[in-house]
Model the fold of this input.
Amino acid sequence: GENVEQHPSTLSVQEGDSAVIKCTYSDSASNYFPWYKQELGKRPQLIIDIRSNVGEKKDQRIAVTLNKTAKHFSLHITETQPEDSAVYFCAAKKSRNFGNEKLTFGTGTRLTIIP
Amino acid sequence: NAGVTQTPKFQVLKTGQSMTLQCAQDMNHNSMYWYRQDPGMGLRLIYYSASEGTTDKGEVPNGYNVSRLNKREFSLRLESAAPSQTSVYFCASKTGVSYGYTFGSGTRLTVV
Done:
């Protein structure tokens, strides 16, 4: 099955600096790569996603890049703010049958923004 | 519109007790999932249901059973709880035509 590795496990950055979290996946058939943000005691929430036919996607201060050849994708957060402090999870999925598809998650990165 | 609702939010069980975690969604989603979250291990899939009437094992199904009662509801049952099942359990759902999961607020389960 799919295996997703995520690095680093913890990351501290000064407020205003950029943060980068990287993930690699094992199954070359995977074609959907979401990122989730989980604040302390809360549920994971989708913040951005990318499909395999796209190399980069941006949404305000966050962006995701995908390198299909190397089988890795990254989350970039610019101009970090205190509210960006959370645990971030990457995930990967391949579509097989309609609806019969499931996400495999990375182990998470705890991002701390230092004021 | 409540999204995905999980009950209970907290539960303490003694080893060997049984319980059922409830999940319901009001978004008319086809697919539903149960994940467990443990420190340093991310979210691991226990069981999922691609559509009403079907269920499949995920990565860590041992010690659990599920029931897709109808399109809205997907329950997770622990027949004989063990301390290794202490975890936070999340239910999620998605519609077949989109890719994003919507998660419930989680159930924090402690087995002593």
About this structure: The two ends of chain A are 41 Å apart (CA to CA).
